[in-house]
TrEMBL record:
UniProt entry keywords in alphabetical sequence: Exonuclease, Hydrolase, Nuclease
Record domain DDH: where: 73-232
Family from the record: Belongs to the RecJ family.
Positions of the DHHA1 domain: 356-449
Name of the protein in question: Single-stranded-DNA-specific exonuclease RecJ
Organism of provenance: Rheinheimera soli
Length: 576
């Protein structure tokens, strides 16, 4: 069972004359994504928003300059996902390039210490002699951990991008575009983006103070943009103008052969080509391998890969990450089969799915529940929360939402209406994490669905695949596909174009029992290859169907240095 999707063309507002230099189809694509000015398409580093708009940046820089002057022992506390890993590597590399000599990092193991600067992590940092703790991609909710560090005489600088709760931690400085009264226009910075901005501000102040000399010139912080780009895409933050600049600049460095060894090793192990890397490769090839360390083992392995000084060592780490990713996929597949079996039983008991799906099984792996929640959300178009065993008597949950429902705000409302039901929670609009008591799982499920009913309209619960309309056969070409790639980077909230059209099936066969390979003919006789990954092998191939309507992405198949157009099928509707 799964929820059927409908194909619907995006509405296109009036197209601004400022977009007239682009191909007509690309003009339409940009307009439908809210682009009205060429300034919104800027991709030069000079067009990045100024760091001066970030609240707390001056206090943060002052803390770091004091630490530099005294060569204090700094401990960076990161997070166990790809954003946390790239944030840690970015800040550590950047600080060392600026002359800091005593910098190390800690990253919590999700199975022992949980998320962020917890009390336990603060104790470890203090025991290691930290004089200044700097959080990356966490800290805005670390009330108790920061209080302990301050009590022990250690200063704390928080850099984060997550939404704050009602109480802010008593840190010496906080840099977070989402904290109250911060004027930074882009609230979408990933944790790695915040860390990068901190380094930009620090370098600028050091330059003003005359710190750099001929023998110690200012470092080129653009060297860090491959890390920033990877972390930004991996964390699935919306690609607004500022984030697109960061991602584009990082991709350009990688394509020009300037990737650091760790990222180059991840590219190699994923069988990608650096000179043709796309933002989608970050999300679907590199990030899963990096994330596998935090999901199954310890993210220190991923950070070690990113910090590797040479390619041989980086490849060693990348091979370990690849093995973990294979293991992660196997675990996930088993969990997904069990979840599907549960949902099939549910479908026999009811004509409708609940508005929110809450799933739990005692032997599910805590490190994979987020991926499972995302997969089920895609199949059923429902907000999904998946739980696994946590500490004694507790369940750890991972939530994924659908457009239109802010999952972190929903959890906040549940917590307010039912005090004590949720022990801890945090996250974003589309993803969140939480902890509840095992004995209260059923109560939580009822409360969550009750509160969610106020927001989940039938329209929100209808799965729609939006397209950019029909694409003429003259655009089914390698040159136009290249134009599309260059028009990005594409990603969250700036989606890669999807087109629709009617075709006649000339050939169809299954590859590896799961991928549908097609030869299609357009209405005016143009033949084009297509592939539908993970197609329904019970429904396809279907020799009785010849005419179909297809929603697809335009791709370039590069085989033995020969390029040809290929359609990546997203959905097929049978016509006849």
């Amino acid at each position: 069972m799964s929820i059927s999707k409908t194909i619907q063309c995006r509405p296109v507002p009036a197209i601004s004359s400022e977009l007239s230099q682009y191909h007509p189809v690309i003009q339409q694509i940009y307009a439908s994504r809210g682009i009205e000015s060429s300034l919104q398409l800027a991709r030069g580093a000079a067009q990045l928003l100024p760091f001066t708009l970030l609240k707390g940046i001056s206090a943060a820089v002052a803390l770091l300059i004091e630490a530099l002057q005294q060569q204090q022992h700094i401990v960076i506390v990161g997070d166990f996902d790809a954003d946390g890993a790239t944030s840690t590597a970015t800040l550590l590399t950047g600080l060392k390039s600026l002359g800091f000599k005593h910098v190390e990092y800690l990253v919590p193991n999700r199975f022992e210490y949980g998320y962020g600067l917890s009390v336990e992590m603060a104790e470890i940092a203090v025991a290691q002699g930290a004089q200044l703790i700097v959080t990356v991609d966490n800290g805005i909710s670390a009330i108790d951990g920061i209080a302990l560090a301050k009590k022990m005489g250690v200063k704390v600088l928080v850099t984060d991008h997550h939404l704050p709760g009602n109480e802010l931690p008593d840190a010496d400085a906080i840099v977070n575009p989402n904290q109250p009264d911060c004027d930074f226009p882009s609230k979408q910075l990933a944790g790695v983006g915040v860390a990068f901005y901190l380094l930009l501000a620090l370098r600028a102040e050091l330059r003003t103070q005359g710190y750099f000399t001929e023998t110690q010139p200012a470092p080129n912080l653009a060297d860090l943009l491959d890390l920033v780009a990877l972390g930004t895409v991996a964390d699935v933050v919306p690609l607004d103008t500022n984030n697109r600049i960061l991602v584009h600049q990082g991709l350009q460095r990688i394509r020009s052969g300037k990737a650091r060894p760790g990222i180059q090793a991840l590219i190699d192990i994923a069988n990608r080509k650096a000179e043709k890397l796309t933002a989608q490769d970050f999300g679907f090839a590199l990030a899963p391998r990096l994330n596998a360390a935090g999901r199954l083992d310890d993210m220190s392995l991923g950070i070690s890969c990113l910090l590797a000084p040479d390619l041989p060592r980086a490849r060693m780490y990348a091979a370990e990450l690849d093995s973990l990713n294979v293991e992660r996929r196997e675990i996930e597949q088993g969990m997904q089969q069990e979840a599907q079996a549960y949902l099939q039983l549910l479908s026999f008991a009811s004509d409708e799915l609940p508005d929110v799906l809450c799933l739990y099984q005692s032997d599910w792996h805590q490190g994979v529940i987020g991926i499972l929640a995302g997969r089920i959300k895609e199949q059923y178009h429902r907000p999904v929360l998946v739980f696994a065993q946590g500490d004694a008597g507790e369940l750890k949950g991972s939530a994924r939402s659908i457009p239109g429902l802010h999952i972190r705000d929903l959890l906040d409302e549940v917590s307010t209406q039912y005090p004590g039901l949720i022990k801890k929670f945090g996250g974003h609009a589309m993803a969140a994490g939480l902890t509840i008591a095992e004995e209260r799982f059923d109560t939580f499920k009822l409360a969550l669905n009750f509160v969610a009913k106020k927001y989940l309209t039938p329209e929100l619960l209808t799965a729609v695949l939006y397209t950019d309309g029909d694409l003429g056969s003259d655009c089914l070409s390698v040159p136009f596909a290249q134009l599309l790639q260059q028009a990005g980077p594409w990603g969250q909230a700036f989606p890669e174009p999807v087109f629709e059209g009617g075709f006649v099936i000339r050939q169809q066969r299954l590859l590896a029992d799961k991928h549908l390979k097609l030869m299609l003919e357009s209405s005016d006789g143009v033949l084009v290859d297509a592939i539908w990954f993970n197609a329904d092998n019970k429904a396809w191939p279907d020799a009785n169907v010849k005419k179909i309507r297809v929603a697809y992405q335009l791709d370039i198949n590069d085989y033995r240095d020969q390029q040809s157009v290929q359609l990546i099928v997203r959905l097929i509707e049978k016509i006849g």
